[in-house]
Each structure stands twice: as C-alpha cells, then as structure tokens.
Amino acid sequence: MRLVIARCSVDYAGRLSAHLPLATRLLMLKADGSLLVHSDGGSYKPLNWMSPPCSIEMTEPDEEQATAGITQVWTVTQKKTQDKLIVSLYEVLADESHDLGVDPGLVKDGVEAHLQQLLAEQIELLGDGHTLVRREYMTAIGPVDILARDDAGASVAVEMKRNANIDAVEQLTRYLELMNRDPLLRPVQGVLAAQTVAPQARTLAEDRGIRVLVLDYDAMRGIEGGHTRLF
C-alpha cells in the first residue's frame, strides 16, 4: 500500500462529475489498483475513490498545468466503465509504501456469523421471490455480508449486525454508493438486518431508502416463539 499526503485537487469524470478543490489530502493506493482520497474528517469514508479493476498513469504536467503549480498528474481509469479519477498534485508532503501481506479477513462474532448463515439459508425472509447470489460479496472496500436478488432480478445488498447503530447504516451506505457504480449490479437496494436496531439508525436508514429487517435468532434456529419483522 502506498500512502501519499499531498496538496492536490481531484476531478471525477464519467457517468457523474465531481470536483474537489485544492487542499491537503491523503491518497491511498492499494495493491488491488484502487485509489481512495481522504480528508482529515468524515470518519472512514473517502471523499472520492476509484475501485478495481482500474489502471493508473502518472504523468508530468503540461505547460499550462505546470504554470498553475501542478507537479504531477495521476489519471486512474476504471477498466469496465472508462470513468476517470484525475488527481493533480501540487506538493507532496509525505510518500510511503508498505507491504501489508495477506489479510486473514474479518473474524465475525459467533452469533453474527451464524445469523448471516441462517439468513442465507432463509433468504425468503427478505421477501417473496428473493434468491441468494452469495455470502461475503467482495467489494473494493470490504465484503458485503449477503448479495441477493429480489423477485424482479434487482440486486439487494444486506449488512448483518447483532445490534445495528448509525455506524452500520454508514457502512452499508458506502457499499451501496460503490456497488451502484457497477453497471452489472445497479440499481442496488440496501437492507440492514439485525437483532436490534437503534432508533437513530432506523431513522437514518429509512431516510436513505434502506430497509430494516429485525431478526429473531431463536425463530431462525427453529425455536418456538420467535418472529422476524421487515420494516
């Protein structure tokens, strides 16, 4: 992984356009080819990013760019969509590379992992006609717990928690923003599935069009008296 702290501006060009004006930011280049642009705020969420498969070209500025103070231009191109993320570097303050090795992946809490397995086996709890695509669907920023399709064939991304709070909604929102860039997946609907959901998390999820599925662990295990609710 390469970590660069630089004064830079960023432009995203493709199906949508976005511009980040000149400021000091963290540029994170991962071994899978992805690039994430972070500020010193916003928690874990990048300001902009390009997910793999993509290629990156680092070039010298042209005369006009050099006159404006640009020292290097990074052009990251998404191979499937041809969208481009263009980073104009004015000053590099730090530049380090580290080999992180092979990541063992997230080890889930036992109950949470079992909930995921049970919901995959009882995917109809999401709604009539839903089918499982796969568990642990990998994205550039981590695995989505369950990817399914509804009765119309549209994609459904499910984030599983024992106790869902606002952070869970933010995490699922990030996955949805990324997955909805993929023409093979979009439109992707989000479902937050948990045993308990904080009131603030429910309000935020509903505001963002994310469904909330309250799971009854005992009912899913076949223990009498349990029930599951979809809101």
UniProtKB/TrEMBL annotation:
A UniProt-annotated Pfam family = NucS_N
Q: Where in the cell is it found?
A: Cytoplasm
Stated EC number for the protein is 3.1.-.-
| Assigned keywords, A-Z | Cytoplasm, DNA-binding, Endonuclease, Hydrolase, Nuclease
Residue limits of the Endonuclease NucS N-terminal PH-like domain?
2-104
Q: Output the InterPro entries linked to this UniProt entry.
A: Endonuclease_NucS, NucS_C, NucS_N, NucS_N_sf, tRNA_endonuc-like_dom_sf
Q: Which GO terms of the molecular function aspect are on file?
A: endonuclease activity
Q: Which residues form the Endonuclease NucS C-terminal domain?
A: 111-231
Whether DNA-binding counts among this entry's keywords is: yes
- 4Fe-4S as UniProt keyword: no
Instruction: Name the source's superkingdom.
Output: Bacteria
**What is the role of the protein in this entry?**
Cleaves both 3' and 5' ssDNA extremities of branched DNA structures.
Q: What does the sequence similarity comment in the record state about its family?
A: Belongs to the NucS endonuclease family.
Q: What is this protein called?
A: Endonuclease NucS
**Species, as recorded:** Curtobacterium caseinilyticum
